[in-house]
Amino acid sequence: MEFPKHLKVAAVNVWPYYIFKDPKNISDISGIEGELLKVLAERLNFRYTVLLPTDGQQFGFKDASGTWTGVKGMVARGEVDLTVSHLGITEEVFKIAEMSAPYYADYKTFASDLPRPLPKYTVLIRPFSVYVWIAIVVCFTLIPFIFHCLTARRQRDFGNHSNEKEHDRPKKQKAPNTAMGILDGFLLVSDTLLRFIYTSVILSVLTVERKGNVIRTAEELAPLLKSRKYKCMLLKGNTIANFLMGSNLEYLRTIGSVIKNYNDPYVPAEYQMKPFGDKRVVVGSKTLFQIMHGPTKFISDDLMDVASTAVFLKKGFCCVDRFSTVLLRIVSAGLYEKFIRDVAFPQEVRISSSLVHTDAVTKLNMNALSGIFFVLCMGYISSLVLLLLEIAHDRWRRKPKIRKLKQ
User: Is the model more confident about 214 or about 373?
Assistant: First the structure.
């Protein structure tokens, strides 16, 4: 059967999949899927008319009434012949459309803003972990207590010896206190080692800027979304929530149920060089995040889903096999990867030109030491306040005695 000469194609107005050079002429297209559509038209010798979804749902999903929206709905209703929109293959869509051969694997993950630098004064506690600090506090609190107990015991023994001498009793030979010597040596060695270790580690910490914690896995994200401490953004028509709700993992089901009912729209072009906002994450395509945001955002390596993308064609389309053959030839030749790189490279240049590049390891300056000087000044001020309070308390206590002497 001869391949059709003219096709209606549904597209999404989402960068970088489609880029419309002229808003009045939406057939003048570029972008990843736009370039793929042009090569398909050239190889299969057909002309096309590009149509956008009028309901604003872009990729489309099945709503509560069972109606499909977006470009999927356009294919399901036969309004277009096909859609090249980077759509993932799911079991549901086999009932409404024909599928071409898969041409790309799309990984789903989440992205967030980069963590902010930690305050400078925290440099004093960063050399050791929490457990090490607890061990140090316990040891240096416990050892003086032991010293106090042993010293009190020695004083009692010395008092007994003095009483024996007064009563002309034979004086006992005093045995050397081995425990005190061991503790003295242990304290001296520990204090010396801690000083050297702390000093060496704090110098290395000062030369590297430390940043706050960031959510790295979906398992960490799930309770934060459930408690509403974080909000999630999604592309319009993103159906990942339905997939996550059917997962065998409880934390993925939690994420799916939360983002299905509570999410904000994510428009990639609006967040090119802007932060997502405090306590916000975006769930979507890892490829999209890498192209759009690059190093300006934290992109998790924890994958929630791996979906194969395909071209959706209307039911009863005449030449699915031929279409798939040409599509696989294009992908096998590396053209689809080229389309991705063609869009990604200018974006990388824009991002790189806007970033201020600093060395990971820098020389020590006053800014790096400001936290230490701040703590030092606060210590001096506290000592001065305590001194004044002691002087005032001593004068207040001596006033009654002075009055008695005058009387």
Answer: 214
End-to-end CA distance of the chain: 126
pLDDT (tens digit per residue) in 243-283:
888 888 999 999 999 998 888 888 887 887 788 988 899 99
CA-derived radius of gyration, the chain: 36
Q: How far apart are CA 44 and CA 322, in angstroms?
A: 9
The structure tokens listed for 119 are 């305050």
Asked if 312 contacts 33 with a C-beta cutoff of 8 angstroms, the reply is no
In this structure, the strands spanning 104-113 and 305-314 are: antiparallel
| Whether the predicted pLDDT of 104 surpasses 80 | yes
Average the pLDDT over 147-174 and give the result: 57
| 28-84 pLDDT per residue, tens | 889 999 999 999 999 999 999 999 998 878 888 888 888 899 999 999 999 999 999
Residue 161 confidence (pLDDT): 52
Residue 158 has pLDDT above 60, yes or no: no
Nearest CA to 204 out of 368, 374, 358 is that of: 368
Please report the beta strands in 230-384, taking only residues with DSSP state E, as ranges in sequence order. 231-234, 264-265, 280-285, 297-299, 305-314
CA distances from 154 to 145, 148, 182, 183 (A): 14, 10, 16, 15
- What is d(CA 95, CA 200) in angstroms, rounded to the nearest whole number? 66
Show the CA angle centred on residue 73, arms to residues 72 and 77, nearest 5°: 120
With a CB cutoff of 8 Å and minimum separation 6, the contacts of 3 are 44, 45, 46, 318, 319, 322, 323
**Helices 320-332/335-354 angle, 10° precision:** 50
Cis peptide before 23 (omega within 30 of 0): no
Give per-residue burial for 42-60: e unless 16+ CB within 10 Å, then b: eebebebebbbbeeebbbb
User: With 90 as the cut, is the pLDDT of residue 327 above it?
Assistant: yes
**pTM for the structure as a whole:** 0.69
Residue 117 contacts residue 211 (beta carbons within 8 Å): yes
